[in-house]
Design goal:
6-stranded mixed sheet; D-Maltodextrin-Binding Protein, domain 2; alpha/beta; 14 helices
Length: 337
């Protein structure tokens, strides 16, 4: 690990940032490549993940609709740094776009973590209905205060637990296990309420951490588990469905301010298409990997007792209603019904 500006990065990520930094700093809206602007988009997912496929589609549409005047360089797998550093770069305009997980963005907009209240959404479609409406605008106002704008709400999936030790049928099966969570206060609260020990590890470091036994397990949607091959080192997959998460597609307000109005429209339209594609791919991936994992004799799958998990996480909802933005939590729960 390498310390840089107070953040711990893997040596791989550190080298990648070092190599890419000149390109990033030169890659804002004012940069020119063969007469056109070059923008940067960073994220932490693997190249086969729906997040990356959608990011590449976004770049393709922007280039096409701008007649080649605007290019978007997409950097997956924490090549430009982990999510915390990407968000810092976004606020300063050093990176133009990010597609981040909900957990990391909650450090800037704490209310967004409430989208991950246990068992709040019965499906991803229920969450999209909420975020594509007035609640999305409420979040946009909060993101504006930290110098960024949501371009779309992608899908980070209904989450399930994997581990290397045993099936998780009931909350008590988690006792004694070390579970990796993202730096998301909601996920941490959920797993601590269930009796697990939690540890925050960058997603780019997760495979090695599981492989080396730094943690016993983790939680993610099937698409993320498969694209990062986490099932290779975590053969027990327990379908808990304990929460849903968003993936905010964000643009720096510095970048928006430098773009011409017509180009802003191009970016927004392209982001809308990319968001729709990512949501579709996530749904397809969940169904596909569900079947593939069931057919894999090396994996051990089980349906967890969701009623027991609901009961075990009930205190989390009560605790979040007591936070400074408790009124917002109440409104969210009421809106979902």
């Amino acid at each position: 690990m390498v310390e840089t500006n107070g953040m711990r990065l893997s040596r791989r990520a550190f080298v990648a940032v070092g190599v890419a930094a000149p390109a990033i700093l030169a890659g804002g809206v004012g940069a020119r490549a063969q007469g056109g602007a070059v923008l940067s988009l960073g994220h932490n997912a693997a190249p086969t993940n729906p997040r990356h496929v959608a990011a590449e589609k976004f770049a393709e549409i922007v280039k096409e609709k701008s007649g080649g005047r605007i290019s978007v360089r997409v950097a997956p797998s924490e090549q430009l740094g982990n999510e915390a550093s990407l968000l810092t770069s976004l606020r300063t305009g050093a990176v133009d776009f990010t597609i981040n997980s909900q957990g990391s963005t909650s450090a800037l907009v704490p209310e967004i973590a409430a989208l991950g209240l246990p068992f709040l959404f019965a499906s991803a479609d229920a969450a999209f209905k909420l975020l594509d409406g007035p609640f999305g605008e409420v979040f946009a106002q909060r993101f504006a205060k930290v110098n960024m704008t949501p371009l779309g709400w992608m899908d980070n999936g209904i989450r399930h637990i994997t581990n290397s030790k045993r099936p998780i049928n009931l909350p008590e099966d988690l006792k004694g296990l070390k579970i990796r969570t993202p730096p998301d206060p909601m996920t941490i609260d959920i797993f601590q309420a269930l009796g697990a020990a939690t540890q925050q590890i960058s997603f780019g470091e997760l495979y090695v951490a599981l492989q080396q036994g730094v943690v016993d397990g983790q939680e993610n949607p099937l698409a993320n588990i498969a694209s990062s091959k986490l099932h290779e080192v975590n053969p027990f997959i327990s379908f808990t469905g304990h929460k849903w998460e968003s993936t905010p597609f964000l643009v720096s307000n510095i970048t928006l301010g430098r773009l011409q109005p017509a180009d802003r429209d191009i970016v927004r339209a392209a982001a809308g298409e990319a968001t729709a594609l990512q949501r579709k791919l996530m749904g397809e991936a969940d169904a596909r990997f569900n079947e593939e994992f069931k057919a894999n004799p090396k994996l051990k799958l089980n349906e967890a007792d969701k009623a027991a998990f609901r009961k075990g996480t009930a205190t989390v909802v009560d605790a979040w209603r007591k936070k400074p933005f408790g009124d917002f939590v109440d409104q969210l729960v009421k809106a979902v019904g």
